[in-house]
Amino acid sequence: MSSTEQRVAIVTGAARGIGAATAVRLAAEGHAVAVLDLDEVACAATVATITGQGGTALAVGCDVSDSGQVETAVARVTEQLGAPVVLVNNAGVLRDNLLFKMSDDDWDTVMNVHLRGAFLMSRACQKHMVDAGFGRIVNLSSSSALGNRGQVNYAAAKAGMQGFTKTLAKELGKFGITANAVAPGFIATDMTAATAERVGMGFEDFKAAAATQIPVARTGEPDDIANAVAFFADEKTGFVSGQVLYVAGGPLN
Ligand code: NAP
C-alpha cells in the first residue's frame, strides 16, 4: 500500500460515545471510516459529522456478536470503501449486577458483545491486513479489568480483551499488524450516564463524585480516548504492539 492511499478503518459501536469520537478522529486523520453499530440509522449522525468535515464515511448496521452479520458487514465495507486495515473494537454493553443476582443472560450478553464481537471482527478483518502487509487493531478494555464491584461479567470481558490483544500482537506482528488496547477510566458517555441513573444519581453529581478520585480532577471525554486510539492506529507506531494503555486521568492501583 502506498502512503498516499486512503486507509480504510472500521470502528464498531460508533453511533455514539467513544466510538463516534474515534470515528471522527480517524476520519480527520485521513481514513475512510466505516461507522458500524447495531442500528445503521443510528450511525447517520457520526457519518454526517465526518462528511461535513470533508471526510469519507459509510454507515453499517451490524451486531458484532453475530458471525454472519460480521462477515456481511466486512464484505460490504471492502466493496464500498476498500479493504479495512484499521479496526477499532469498541462496541460494548453493560449488564451490571452483583454476582448473586447476575443472570446467565447478563453474563452471556457481555461476553458476546465484547469478546466474541472483537474475535469475530478481528478474524474477518485480519485477512485484508495480511494481504496489505499492514494493519492496526485497537481494542477497548477498561479500568474495570482490574476488578470492579458489580461488574464481574464486564471485568472478566475487559481483562479478556487484554489477553486477546497480546495474543493478536504475537500472531500477527510478522504481517505488519499491531494490536493494542486502550483501557479507559471514567468517560462521560451514555454508558456512564446509564450507570448514574441505575444508582439513582444525577449525572453531573455522579461525574463530580468520580472526579474527586481522579488525579487530574476531572472525568474523561470521548476525545481523550479517541486520541489514544489514534496513536495506536498511526502508521508511525508500528513498533508499539501488545500494549495496554490506561487512559484514566492518573495511575490505577
Ligand atoms: P456507549 O455510549 O454505550 O456506546 C456503545 C455503542 O456500542 C452503542 O452505540 C451501542 O449500540 C453499540 N453496541 C452495543 N452492542 C453492540 C453490538 N452487539 N454490535 C454493534 N454495536 C453494539 O458506550 P461508550 O461509553 O462509548 O463505550 C465504548 C467502549 O468503551 C465500550 O467497549 C466500553 O466498554 C468501553 N469503556 C467505556 C468507559 C466509559 O467510562 N464510558 C470506560 C471504560 C471502557 P446501542 O446504542 O444500539 O446499544
TrEMBL record:
Pfam families: adh_short_C2. The keyword Manganese does not apply. InterPro entries: KR_dom, NAD(P)-bd_dom_sf, Sc_DH/Rdtase_CS, SDR, SDR_fam. Residues 7-185 form the Ketoreductase domain. GO terms for molecular function: 3-oxoacyl-[acyl-carrier-protein] reductase (NADPH) activity. SMART domains: PKS_KR. It comes from the Bacteria. The keyword Oxidoreductase applies. SUPFAM superfamilies: NAD(P)-binding Rossmann-fold domains. The gene is fabG. It comes from Streptomyces iconiensis. Its EC number is 1.1.1.100. It is an enzyme of class 1 (oxidoreductase). This is 3-oxoacyl-ACP reductase FabG. PANTHER family: 3-OXOACYL-(ACYL-CARRIER-PROTEIN) REDUCTASE, 3-OXOACYL-[ACYL-CARRIER-PROTEIN] REDUCTASE FABG. Belongs to the short-chain dehydrogenases/reductases (SDR) family. Keywords: Oxidoreductase.
